[in-house]
Amino acid sequence: MDKNLEELTLTVVADFPVTVRRLWDAYADPRQLERFWGPPQWPATFTRHDFCPGGRSEYYMTGPDDTRSGGYWEFLTVVEGVSFEVLDGFADAGGAPDPEMPTMRAVFSFEEMAGGARLTTTTYFASLDQLEQLISMGMEEGTRSAMAQIDDVLADLRTFAADRAAIAQLLGDTQVRISRVLRGTPRQIWEAHHDPELLNRWFHGPDGWALVGCRVASAPGETTRFEWAPDDGVEGEAFALVGELIETDPPHREVFTETMEGVEGPPTHNEQTLTPVQGGTLLTLVITYASAELRDLILGTGMVDGMEAGYRRLETELLAAG
């Protein structure tokens, strides 16, 4: 770790006995990143992680007394496997940038080394006062203790393996994050979610059900509608999910609402991102519900198992066929 008061920089160089691809993925995957971004006493939770140019990450760290400290990244550049650059700032309790705290520019550079990979992180400060303020807040010590956790994450190949089924992780009181690595590129996965002909081939939910209605949105403000019905001899009643597209940035990210047709109550707020990783594309879906009770009720219906059945079908029927 090198602190340069003349250049107003703090540079950290760390070597790891893994490939650049493995080290890069630890930063690209929010499930992995949050296991080392905060010091052990202040673990991080990422509620958003758009790992692409123009993207944004939002997170909070939770202290021993449940005190929260928020932060965000704004991605200026992302060159896959080489480097990424962010504006690194503090956030208030509502997630907005905190005007009382400084904002830094940070560059993360990755390079192959004999026997492993090197990560060089350089943080640029706007003034000497800003640098000294953050150093006095324990930035050096916090960085050392946080990065000391990376080795354990890199060694954990099973938890984040590409052949694992979809998993759900509770975030806060009302959110859930569903993650799955799918074989294919982000563009292929995006098209499979937005081409009605392709959707008809995999977006069935559990076995024994069929997609009988499909309206896809391509621009903010347009609405969606997906209807499913059971096959003959399968128990259950037809139902439909409707929503509205809020944001779209193909093939990286989209934000949309969703609710069951005919059911009163606020819709869910869904943020889906597609990030290239080793083995394919990491699909991350963060769903925000109106309450913890509603979230737990929906998850208890076997929703994630139904999504996994669809993802398996997507891989085998679409991607395997090219």
From TrEMBL:
<feature type="domain" description="Activator of Hsp90 ATPase homologue 1/2-like C-terminal">
    <location>
        <begin position="18"/>
        <end position="154"/>
    </location>
</feature>
<feature type="domain" description="Activator of Hsp90 ATPase homologue 1/2-like C-terminal">
    <location>
        <begin position="185"/>
        <end position="316"/>
    </location>
</feature>
<dbReference type="InterPro" id="IPR013538">
    <property type="entry name" value="ASHA1/2-like_C"/>
</dbReference>
<dbReference type="InterPro" id="IPR023393">
    <property type="entry name" value="START-like_dom_sf"/>
</dbReference>
<comment type="similarity">
    <text>Belongs to the AHA1 family.</text>
</comment>
<dbReference type="Pfam" id="PF08327">
    <property type="entry name" value="AHSA1"/>
</dbReference>
<protein>
    <submittedName>
        <fullName>ATPase</fullName>
    </submittedName>
</protein>
